[in-house]
Amino acid sequence: MTQYDQMFREEGNEQLEIAEQALLSYESHADIRYIEEAFRALHTFKGGAHIFALTNLGDFAHMIESVLDGIRHELLTDEPRIADKLLKYLDHLKKLMNDPELKDSQIQLKNNQLVKEIKALSSKISDAIKKSDQSKETALLEAFIEQEDEENISTYYLTIQPLIDIETGSGHPVFGILDDIQEMGDHKMKPAFKNDNSIVVRWDLYVACQATREDLEAQFMFIEDEVELTVHKIANFNLFNELGFEELLNVLDKTPTDQKLTELTGYVESLKETLVADSADSDTTGKGSKSGSIRVSTSKIDVLMNLVSELVTDQAGLKMMVSSSPDPQFEGLVENIERHIRQLRDIAFEMTLVPIDRLMGKFRRLVRDCSISINKEVNFKVTGENTELDKIYIDTLSDPIMHILRNCLDHGIESPEERSKKGKPAIGTISLDAYYSGAYVHIEISDDGRGLNIQSIQNKALELGLINENDKPSTSEIYELIFQPGFSTAQNVTNVSGRGVGMDVVKKNIEDIHGEINISSEAGKGTKFTIKVPLTLSIIDALLVKADHSHFVLPLQIVHKCYELRYDSLTDDFNKLLVLDNKQIPFIDLRTELSLDKTPVPEYCNAIVVKCRKMELAIITDEIIGEYQAVLKSVSEYYKHQEFVSGATILGDGSVALVLDADKLVEQKTN
User: Fold this and answer.
1) Quick check: 598 and 629 in contact, CB under 8 A?
2) Longest pairwise C-alpha distance within the chain
3) Which of 85, 256, 533, 588 has its CA 20 to 30 A from that of 147?
4) What is the C-alpha end-to-end distance of the chain, expressed in Å?
5) pTM tops 0.70
6) Model confidence at 289, in pLDDT bands (50, 70, 90)?
7) Which residues does the record list as Phosphohistidine (modified residue) (predicted)?
8) Buried b or exposed e, range 574-583, using 16+ CB within 10 angstroms
């Protein structure tokens, strides 16, 4: 796969995703805005396909685009399930992305069938135009075939500067793009060459066309990392029709860009008063395109994060060196380095964050298709789609959430008949809510279905030997049985779920990224799955502490207060409670809990109160070292069995500190 194939695949899939979401929205709300959005995405996709000579992809996209055009001009008003058909065509377009030359006979056969189907829709559009009265027919026909309308023509000045060596006749996609733009209308182009050889260093292109500035920019979308593009709108009419314009361009051939713009502006103003874009107001797009962003491979971001992590570790070592031999000048320098590294860390971290909305398209489509296949009507509600997560989490959580959604659809939501008998609306509801809570992100997936049947789960657990008849598990323990391998209470296997495969994998995948999943349910009212994951797996602000000879870190986000106590004031009674600020708070002593006894017990100790799950716990340590930027590392197999340890970090002197999972400590000690 060439870099251009990969470039088109990434951008093309993005445009297809936009089109799919727009069509799903149109199916729900029948607003023509969504058709316009899908049309623009398909138009961009089609342009990219033709740039890279992917004829089958471009032609099929053009056919879908024609149907969308018919819909937006109200020429397919009576066509049943049109959104369903369009989604089917998009699905086929996705398959063509993997087989653009139709080498697979099954895909080729499907392609032929769908082409016939779309042509039939196009015939209906043509018939609708013919049935219109003459005046309306003319207007519709002009809109449908996009005939040129002189009043909508603008004149643009484009500069295209390659950021790599591009030889004439090299077959680089830029030549196809320039040809396409010149075909849009009257034009004049002047290439500049490097050292009189065939390496192009710049193109100056003037074109009068109906395209918008955004349309022209979109032409270069797939090579935006290889050329620097500037688009200036110099008039909102066709300057090529004006006397002396082309002669002026010849005179300006070797004039600097800023001076060209001044001359062109003066020329246009001398012709007539019109909307003229001067150099201060013109939009400039380079590699960053109009949004000021660039496309960077995730591998490069991963390398950046690793380098930042190493810098954080090195900075910690530098800080320890300064503390052992104080020097005010050196200390100030180290503080500056620490501040800059912290800023660099924050920026690098933000680069890894993506909104959870990135997954929503996939989830909406899943809920729609599954509900149709099992004859259930479901309303899928989403809140918090702008909540951001590390890309690692986004990729890891996709499959677990999809599995939970399938279970909600198949086992949770009742049939319309059953819901009516219970006095519920015939249309069920599945909700997905994402939100921040401290150093964590919570994702809740809930339904308003039948809820979990506790007795059914217990009976199945007895049958599988997971519990004994004399056991009296709590409600939460019964729910946990669902995560056992092969566990399922479904009577029938469907295409959606019920095979007893998956919930154990769901839990494992979530725990692999230091997350957790919990279930709550109410019979007859529904079930809620709550997934909780930390904001990042890479670098955290932490509190570094010491117990005996060992160092530990706690996420600073959950540290509430710190107290100094006499060690002999700790009670050894059953309750293990401290009274701090007139409040009873449960505590754990790290020395006792982790069997640390290489050094004598200190006279004074520190109680660090952490807040998790709306509960408090005091963690007793010998000493608080101070705040620390911890680069999180995975731990060895031995520590993976220590339920209170979630990771490790390397200190400035090369020693290792364990990261305490305060959330699990709180959960166990407060139960």
Assistant:
1) no
2) 100
3) 85
4) 56
5) no
6) very low
7) 43
8) eebebebeee
